Amino acid sequence: MKVVRRIAWIALFAVIAAAALGLNYVLPHHAVVHVTGTEVKRVDKDGIVSAENPADGPTRDVYFVNAITPDGKRTRVFTNEDTRFGFPWYFKFDAADQQARAQSLAQNPEQLAVVTYYGWRLRMFDTFPNAVSLTPTDSPTAPFPWFNTALLVIVLILAGYLALRINRWRKRRTASRQARPS
């Protein structure tokens, strides 16, 4: 019985960890940066098309936004792609407009911008976070993630309610087993 409980706890931990990673990937993040430039690259299913990676199927153009943190210590690169009706559901249809805004922000090297994005930068897999919006700002601090906080509170309340219901169900089940005549 101890082995089954241990496996159940490990499985529960794995599910919670997977859910946390998934939420971290799809929920919006904010970064305050100086936009340094923009570019458009041709990509296919294997990544950026180049001499080392020739196109072997359908290709598309992807906008990129290059940036640097206000302290100048960290570079950031974002893709700027429409999500349309696909997952995650940001319903972004204005990538070209965002690219024009990014080009405008790059003209003034002193102007800070808040980039709202989702996703991770994984250098090993050549993946970039997707910029959902670019907004000029004067503050070097990122805005507080109210949506993420509210969603996390709601998820924790629902998880607590579910744990309470399961605990009550287990107690009733144990009590009914003990009340049965042998």
From TrEMBL:
Q: Which domain of life is it from?
A: Bacteria
Q: Entry's Pfam families?
A: DUF1523
- Transmembrane ranges? 7-27, 144-164
Q: What is this protein called?
A: DUF1523 domain-containing protein
Source organism lineage? Answer: Bacteria, Pseudomonadati, Pseudomonadota, Gammaproteobacteria, Lysobacterales
Q: Which UniProt keywords apply?
A: Membrane, Transmembrane, Transmembrane helix
